[in-house]
Amino acid sequence: MSLRVLNPNAEVLNKSAALHMNINAAKGLQDVLKTNLGPKGTIKMLVGGAGDIKLTKDGNTLLKEMQIQNPTAVMIARTAVAQDDTSGDGTTSTVIFIGELMKQSERYIDEGMHPRVLVDGFDIAKRATLEFLENFKTHVVMGETPDKEILKMVGRTTLRTKLYEALADQLSDIVVNAVLCVRKPEEPIDLFMVEIMHMRHKFDVDTRLIEGLVLDHGSRHPDMKRRAENCYILTCNVSLEYEKSEVNAGFFYSTAEQRETMVTAERRQVDEKVLQIIELKNKVCSDNESNFVVINQKGIDPPSLDLLARAGIIALRRAKRRNMERLVLACGGEAVNSVDNLTPDCLGWAGLVYEHVLGEEKYTFVENVKNPHSCTILIKGPNDHTIAQIKDAIRDGLRSIKNTLEDEAVVLGAGAFEVAARQHLINNVKKTVQGRAQVGIEAFADALLVVPKTLAENSGLDTQDVIISLKNEHENGNIVGLNHHTGEPIDPQMEGIFDNYSVKRQIINSVPVIASQLLLVDEVIRAGRNMRKPS
Amino acid sequence: MVFHKQPYGIQGLLKEGHKHLSGLDEAVLKNIDACKQLTLITRTSLGPNGMNKMIINHLDKLFVTNDAATIVNELEVQHPAAKILVLAGKAQQEEIGDGANLTISFAGEILQNAEELIRTGLHPSEIISGYTKAINKTIELLEEVVEEGSENMDVRNKDEVVSRMKATVSSKRFGEEDILCPLIADACIQVCPKNPANFNVDNVRIAKLVGGGLHNCSVVRGMILKNDAIGSIKKVEKAKIVVFTGGVDTSATETKGTVLIQNAEQLEKYAKTEEAKVEELIKAVADSGAKVVVSGAAVGEMALHFCERYKLMLLKISSKFELRRFCRTTGAVALLKLSPPNPDNLGYADSVSVEEIGGARVTIVKNDEAGNSVTTVVLRGSTDSILDDLERAVDDGVNTYKAMCRDSRILPGAAATEIELARKLKEFSFKETGLDQYAIAKFAESFEMVPKILADNAGLNAMEIISSLYAEHAAGNTKVGIDIEEGVCKDVSTLTIWDLYVTKFFALKYATDAACNVLRVDQIIMSKPAGGPKRDQPAGMDED
């Protein structure tokens, strides 16, 4: 180059070099993530900067925690994370699908094909696949009382890819019940109403669903009851502590008596609020069989706690805001912002409130509520990494149930859809297209097979055998998936392996887009200083 | 151009300083190796004849102990796989409070055996499924080995408690269990509530006082406060007690107060009213019958003066938790601020006295009457590290008591259970047909680790012991274990060495879980260690 246009430190890659960098990055990322896919995927251990351990099989977690630097890989990772944000699952599939598309394209490009032609083919294939998906999906009617069995199957399919089998089966019941609990007719499902709480205690299989709420703090007064039955619950957001005036105020006194009166006057305001609560308690709990619990979002200072404790009221202070919402949904009543004119209608009800102490931590359980619209999944596990793993899995499980309820449809899993879609593309779609775009469709169709291929690979089966037997079955018109234990074709419907419709749709939608973009890059310029120090 | 030279695969994608290990050789076997190294450290501490370790942690604190939980805690294990084992040990310590060593050593042992299996060609996933089957079977078998009739025990019967506690305590302080166990048992039984399941470990306190020796250790019904009384009254008996969480002083407003004084006369008058006020309060306290005043915060000079005048003993307990315990001990209800107490709120103690033990002044609060719920084990020893170790032994003993309150089932100790499990599990493995059987057989073999280490640590011939144990067990003497003192195999029911079922249950379960977790990992991605403040020396385990 006779004249440099760019900063001498800038790096330029052009034409095939740029393309190959992209392809290599995509393949590299695929290599990392592909062992994650499916129930037989292996676990990765991530060690953070501070030496903290995370064990995960979840593609999303992995992408977030691995500090990826390569620009292409970052783009792919973002697409995958976006996949997770919209549909809650399918991150790994997205990444390996992108990688495979690039890999297939590489072959054709090396033979002299222009990327643009491939991209055109991708586009046609994408639209055809989406149409095919519409016909392929299985409708599920989700009326007032959805079919729990189907939901459990969907939950199980998702969870088994994140956790080991026994635990996944147990959790799938939990997530289904949790979602159905917070589901209200005519309203979108708000998964935030499922509180996820964890305790470092016992084993992972002790994880359970609590119809009610678990708060991660306890009462702060030693004389309050640790366990109470038939409780009225007052959810409030009232400060029960003395607050200093905003302006700089001071007292002037000249005798000790004067000071004493000032001390009492100062307390009076707060005490009055407390007395109002106590009054309400005496009104509703006159029969001595019921108890009264105050859960306050703001603080309660020691003198007020003392007053409440003497009146036999259990008081919790500084509850989380989101829990206030959930409490009302779980126990009924309403959250009050002022203690004036309290009526029994504001109160919620719970059959059992108790405190559980675990080492230094205190937990308050609000259980046996009537007709709850909020619930808690209490995760237990012996150590933090187990808990984190379960937490991620539960989040995905909840999302998958929610998706099913909203889609009112599921897709046959275990690779059945991918094989069927490929069949459709090759047999039907390819013939309708003229010219070189056919190649793009072919590449797309072959890339779809990466899902069953990887499933087979991770289960230690012979990839080619599996693919051929699956293809044959599909040729004969049987829709089958892969049994990862034996490598034989199975009917996913019989085995109860269902994927989310929206997840699959999102994958088919986003993957060709990002792959096309990467293929169409013909120049990469890294500006300015070199971030990677030459070594 | 650097772009061109980018390595293919994951290395090129990540930030510099990343480490990436994958595959069988690089990840799985290395992980196993690291865990093995860790267990090499802990296993010599297993059992009564276990060796002590001397550890100096990053704060230059010295530990001399054979308590595995403490050892691994202070080691600052860096390797991620070894850390999983450490976490399993910690979980055991938190859950039961004992058996951490068994957890770590056993996990290390089954991992070591897994390595052999991997080398012969088994896939880790097959080993995991075999181990999972094995542990489930083990749990079943464990139920069978449980000593009959032990599920019902009287947790208030000292002899029964001592027999269950002995194995635990002797593994920490061998030879001293005959003195320590009765002490711990006494202390625990005294505070055991009506429903034993509600037993609270916190109610058994430990006071460590340098000086004296093991024979000076004792149990005090009540509490020992490690400070002096404030006033001149050092001893009262049969006293009523009033507790204030706030300070014993003149009351103050939250808002800033200013005394408005215009002339000298007012100043004098103010001081007088102040005095009168305090006197009035203290007098009211004295009139209520209280003889001891306990303050949770500062005690004012003036208040002290009047307390002296009304012959009130003044104590200061600044820890909130200590104050709560004090309330529990004496049955007092803590009052927020200095005010005339209600008779219901007064507590009672048989005696409150300041004594000098080993050069330190301590306040002993005794309460023999019913209603007391806190006891203190007074430990005496010549050095701090001995006291610390004694404390850990007592802690373990108390935790064992708690565990037996929940589940009193016992198993034969001294490796009898392990051999029995190994034997039965081996039989089970022969019945399995798949590749699992190899893993199950190895799992069974792993149990031999316990008698092996016990024998090794006691200087006996391990192989001989194990073979004779197997012979005895095969002959139907399922309760035969090692008598390490005589170096022979004996029926443990004659030796009265019993282990708690729950301890073993959790230890084995946690160990297997941790080991399976380690085996499941096939890739490790380590980010660059975060830059923190530099230590003087690099924290490394290799450097001895």
Secondary structure: elements and pairs:
The complex is a heterodimer of chains A (535) and B (544).
Chain A: E1 11-14, H1 16-34, E2 43-47, E3 53-56, H2 59-65, H3 71-87, H4 91-110, H5 115-136, E4 138-139, H6 148-160, H7 165-182, E5 194-200, E6 208-210, E7 213-215, E8 227-236, E9 251-253, H8 256-284, E10 291-296, H9 302-310, E11 313-316, H10 321-331, E12 348-358, E13 361-369, E14 375-381, H11 384-407, E15 409-412, H12 416-432, H13 437-448, H14 450-458, H15 463-475, E16 481-482, E17 489-490, H16 492-495, E18 498-500, H17 501-519, E19 523-526
Parallel strand pairs in A: 5-14, 8-10, 10-11
Antiparallel strand pairs in A: 1-19, 2-3, 4-15, 6-14, 7-13, 8-12, 12-13, 15-18, 16-17
Chain B: E1 19-22, H1 23-43, E2 53-56, E3 62-65, H2 68-75, H3 80-95, H4 100-119, H5 124-145, H6 158-172, H7 177-191, E4 204-210, E5 218-225, E6 235-244, E7 257-259, H8 264-287, E8 290-295, H9 301-309, E9 313-316, H10 320-330, E10 347-357, E11 360-366, E12 375-381, H11 384-406, E13 410-412, H12 416-431, H13 436-446, H14 449-457, H15 462-474, E14 480-483, E15 488-491, H16 492-495, E16 498-500, H17 501-520, E17 521-526
Parallel strand pairs in B: 4-12, 6-8, 8-9
Antiparallel strand pairs in B: 1-17, 2-3, 5-11, 5-12, 6-10, 10-11, 13-16, 14-15
